[in-house]
Structures are given as structure tokens and as C-alpha cells.
Structure prediction request, 177 residues.
Amino acid sequence: MESRSWSAAQSYCRTYHTDLTSIRSKEEKSNITLTLNGSVVQYVWIGLYRDPWAPWSDNTTSTFTNWAPSDPNNYASAEYCGALNLMSGKWDDGFINYKNYAFCFTAVTKQTVVKMKLQSEADMHSTEIQQQVSQQLSGLMLSEGLTDFRIRWRKVQSYRDDQLKKQDEDGDCKTEV
Ligand SMILES: [Ca+2]
Prediction:
């Protein structure tokens, strides 16, 4: 591991991982201190930069803060970057050109596939109706805070088709024309 200025640490994380780490909860803080437990490192750069110290470098926000009692003190009016002190587990604002180790994170993308079966008297093969249903679904997903999704239509044989076919095969129900 190499120590770097905050900006270099941020570029390093964005190149080789996702970004400098965010610490939005006690759990996230514990994960970092546990990872570095037993190492001689005292400070690591985290994704905090400048007053008002939000959002994080990865653009997420949180109400969780963990400053040391005397920080951020902006010593010599030149401390604009956030570091985690591994001895105290607290944050300290530091000079941007201090050389610290970077603590990066790598985002994991999780994909969930949801299949829905729709039965309706309306003609579900109609593009217009499909668009209307897709729009309503999109609206619902967005209102739940889901933004990264894709809606696709897949044609399957309907229940009614199955029934008619079965009846025809059995010979019970021939349609007189
Ligand atoms: Ca400070």
C-alpha cells in the first residue's frame, strides 16, 4: 500500500475500485476498523471533502457523523479532507496534501428479476396498452426510490387458450359455427 494525498487517493479508488469509502453508519465504520485491525496504519483517507462535508465522494449522503470532539477544526484554515483515525475510530479533517492510505470500496451490483403475470379482458398484445401498464409500473417503482430497472414484455400462452385447447382435445366442447 502506498500513501497518497486525498485527491490522489480519490483518483486511485475511482480507477481501481469504485470510490473512496463512505461511512454512513456505525456498521460501516466497524467494517473498516475491523479490516485494518492489527495494521500499523493510523489514518486512512475517507470520502469526505470540505465543509459542509456532504455528500460523500461517491455522492451518497447520510446524517451519521463521527468527528473527534475537537474536529473538524480546520487547522490553519487549510484542512479540507476527511480521514479516519483508526486509534480512536473518529474522523479528523486534514490537509489535502498529507499522505495517507486510501480506503476504497467497490460497489457490488445486485440484479433481481421479477416476473409478473397479467390477466385482463384488455388486449395485452396491444403496444398501447403495454406502454400504459409499463408507465404505471415505472411510476410505482420510482415512487419507491427504485431508479435502475428495465421493464420487458414476454408473451406467454394464456390460461384461457390452455383451457380451450384442453376442451377441444377432450371433445367435450366443440364450437358450432
Ligand atoms: Ca483537524
